User: Fold this.
Amino acid sequence: MGLDKIYDVVGIGCCAFDIVVEVDRYPEADEKAPIRGMRFQGGGLVATALIAVARLGGTCAYVGPLGDDYFAQFCVDDFAKEGVDTSFIRRVPGASVVLAIIIACPKAGTRMIVGTGEKNPSAVEDDIPEDVIRRARALHIDNFQPAPALKAARIARSAGVPVTMDLEFGGRRADEFLAVGDYIIVPLAFARRRYGAEQPEEGARALFEETAPKGAKAAVVTAGARGSFAVWADGAMHQPAYRAPTVVDTTGCGDVFHGAFALGLARGWGIERILGFASAVAALKCRKLGGRAGIPTEAEVREFLSSAEPLT
Assistant:
């Protein structure tokens, strides 16, 4: 086990098995429609963020329990293939992972997701390797299984390790998460529900106003093709989304944005550089079907940024 290793990013959160299909159009009720393509891929918020970290050249580890069936083994094998350390995964007999079916429609630029976590094992606080988190350069969490993620965030903060978080799952225990995050990145839908914000700038400012007194260093609201807006103590900026070479599937764009952001923190970059880098990673991910197939390497990102065009 990598107990003495220092990782760029340690991640605790959702891991999924995705069945991704591509269609020319969504069928009406009681109608059949042909599938243009189908892929099996790993998925999940934190898990996909870590794949992005690894593919971009960072070191990382996934922490938490997974089952022992085919779907869980696929996810563990995918981590290993991509270079994500699996030493801290606890295997649970008879359990699985989150299962999701994703229907992508490139012509519409949209996708639909249905899923279940019914057989996903519950994480416990004992799953958290405290020494590993204290030595990490960044911790990335979501609120899929709140108790261990919150414990990890508190450990990281006490050790001066920056905490990034993805609060997509309906704001579950949001008050507690917002009190322990350093770099809080949420979709516009979250800011709309919590603050009534209709614009990313409005949402980011409200998010930072709430979390800065609790120790947050920056707040970021993402808004798809509209880009992202960040606010921190002595600055604010809008980062445009970049025009992707081709858009096949937007699944996972937010996840890889988070992974690239956490890696930028681990490397000591400033927020402006991190946001541009993360936006480029998200744009390039759109090239292929599924949340992971299109994740770029760092060399691809550098080449892309040399001529990237903003959408807005």
